[in-house]
Amino acid sequence: MKLTKTLLLGSAAGLMAASGAFAADLPVKAKAVEYVKICSLYGAGFYYIPGTDTCIKLGGYLRAEVAFNTNSLYGISNGSPAGAHNRLSNTYSMRAREDLNIDTRTATEYGVVRTFFDGVFTWTTGGYQGSGSATGGTVYTGNLGLNTSGATPALVGSSINGTDGNTSGGSLGVYYAFIQFAGFTMGKAVSQFDAPWTNYPGNNIDSLVGGSGTVTGVNQFTYTADFGQGVTASFSAEDATAYYQAGNVNLTGATAGSMIGGSYGTNAIGGSRSPNLVGMVRVDQAWGMFQASVAAHDNHVAYYGATEATGHPDDKWGWAVQLALSIKNIPTGAGDVINIQGVYTDGATRYNFQNLAGSSYSMFGSSGVAYQSVGFAYAPDTVFVTGGQQETVKTWGFRGAYTHNWDAYWNTALYGAYAQAQYGSTAKTALCGAGGAGGVFGGLAGVTGCNPDFAVGQIGVITRWTPVKNLTFSGDLNWTRLDQKYSGTVGYAGAGTTAKPAALYELKDQDSITLLLRAQRNW
């Protein structure tokens, strides 16, 4: 009996110990789920990042588009191979793009700390230009990235990355990546020189002249002062190398063939020395906006020749000034707006012929007196000859648009742009000789007029339909005319990249007509 009692007590103790062990393994009560909370401090779409006092907003768009009569959706039919206007030129170019932006904001005792990132993933139609070989053939010029051998695809009569159809191609771009804190903007953002609409006073096409437009941002360090009543002023140091160097060209290297191709010599830009210095004052009111901008640009040349011993010109500062005006609430309809801007540059060409428009032209067309006609032009920042100093290229221009809303779903904009470039005596003497009858080009047989000055005029119309919120379909028709100042005829040696043969060509103004169709869903 005593043994039985001992066994029962031992068993009970073991069971209690085991039950304690099992209890230790049972799940404890979970903490309450912390749901994402709406952040109403900075407008719609912001949420608190769980566990923090930082608000975040995700946004972007997906875009599908096709442009006709151009090899580039953002440009006109110019250069090689689009400007050849032959069997090498694209009838259409297509693009699909996804944009993603991330906006974070945190309230602090010094004000709001903001970060902003905007990146794009893009797939675009490529093109082909002549290979330049004696037996003909073409070379693919699309943006496919690198193939398995590490070389850019250069294909003659073969498929494009036949192993996988280039499913890993396309391109990745970073538009904006900046921090804002206590009035400072640090990183890649729209230039403080630009009008608020950058390249788009009312259009979709990117290639308007007549003003600056860093639509994909420029590295900068900026301070903005807010004086209240809608008045702000900014001072900025901005990277000059990516978007603002139109060229420092040694005219001693110019040939007639290179001029017809849109290049007037050897580009001799040196390493970066100073950022562009930008100042801006803006007034934002219910009636619209007024902005005045100035910029200084350092033109720093490498050497006259291939080595240090050849010497170099001194640095020369260029500058630009721009005025922009937006008028809202005009009597023609609710939401109608007029946007206009004008600019003058001296040695800072990209503030007029902005980087997506470019400042080099080479375009071919028909002729009644020669094999074909050709128009060409070029506007760098400065030019010089070996042993001489830099001479600035001066430009002026304007752009603008009027947008009318027919109703809540339809609107139409009429837009236009104009820009003119003017050379000094150094360039005109080197290229055209005294009185336009000598130099590299002016003395050629058949040339009756030689002047490197030129103008570009543009006009267009765009209509947009938004059947539901944040989904827009648009059609943008643009006409661009190159008004060049050369006349007569010239014997051109031809070029394999454009498949142009050696023949007599008429020197003549040229035109480009481009239609851009787009579907875009914002989110």
Task: Supply database-style keywords.
5-stranded mixed beta sheet, 523 residues, Porin, 8% helix, 28 strands, mainly beta, 16-stranded antiparallel beta barrel, disordered N terminus, globular
Structure description:
Forms passive diffusion pores that allow small molecular weight hydrophilic materials across the outer membrane. Keywords: Cell outer membrane, Ion transport, Membrane, Porin, Signal, Transmembrane, Transmembrane beta strand, Transport. With 523 residues, this protein is mainly beta. It has one domain: Beta Barrel (Porin), CATH 2.40.160. The N terminus is likely disordered.
Taking Cα atoms only, what radius of gyration do you get, to the nearest Å? 30 Å
**Number of structural units classed as domains:** 1
Order of neighbouring strands in the sheet with most strands: 2-3-4-7-8-9-10-13-14-15-16-21-22-24-25-28
Q: Quick check: average pLDDT? A: 90
Outline: globular
Largest sheet: 16 strands, antiparallel, barrel
Distance N terminus to C terminus? 82 Å
Low-confidence stretches: 1-24, 144-165
Q: For the record, what CATH class applies? A: Mainly Beta
In total, how many beta strands?
28
The level of helicity is under 10%
Number of helices: 4
Signal peptide: 1-23
InterPro entries: Porin_alphabac
Protein name: Porin
GO biological process, one term: monoatomic ion transport
